[in-house]
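Quick start: what a row looks like.
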Amino acid sequence: MQRSLEFWFETKAVRPMIIGEFEDYALLRAFGEMGTAIFPMPSVFEKQPERLRGLATIGHTEKVRMHFYAISAERKLQHPAVVAISNAARRELFR
């Protein structure tokens, strides 16, 4: 998401002061909850109120996207657990 976000900032002539970079969402959120910064959050989390506790949304954009990939050696998913995870992700994340 970083490259997409940086490109979006460039198109808007926004130059944020970056004070931290995090690969772990829980750490990013903990840092943001201290109230000293803003941070990007996937809009899918807005559908999960427990993830928004103590946070406020200040804006939205459809121009920055995250991509999720499921990689399988098989062309068609066959393992019941993998099928269940894939179906749940489609149902819950991409409504």
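That is the whole record. The two ends are 20 Å apart (CA to CA). The chain has a mean pLDDT of 81.
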